[in-house]
Give the backbone structure.
Amino acid sequence: MVLITACASKPAGIQDEGLNGKLFTNIVSGDIRLFRFVVDVPEQSVRPITQRNQSGQRREALQDRAELHKKQLENIEKALKDEQSLTEFCPNGFTVIERYAVLNELVIRGECQYK
């Protein structure tokens, strides 16, 4: 298991240079190399409810958060291509199997490419 850490200069989100996350690797039978990269996302602060019927505002906030996570996942995927520990594990590159946001984590799962 390899751990990747870096200092974050931005309080929320993912910075472009350097990644703050954890790389989990697994080699299964047939020398199939799989990885999972997990980035913790800070929780959004809780604010008091000021009106009862805010379903439109809530829906907008959820859509905004989903868009933010999508952009963050795209940025992480781009930055992973230059990540040294992943390059050592996948010397011929990798293919992303899936990427998703769940609770307070952004996750990218992938498989190494083979010659």
Observations:
- The chain is about 30% helix and 30% strand.
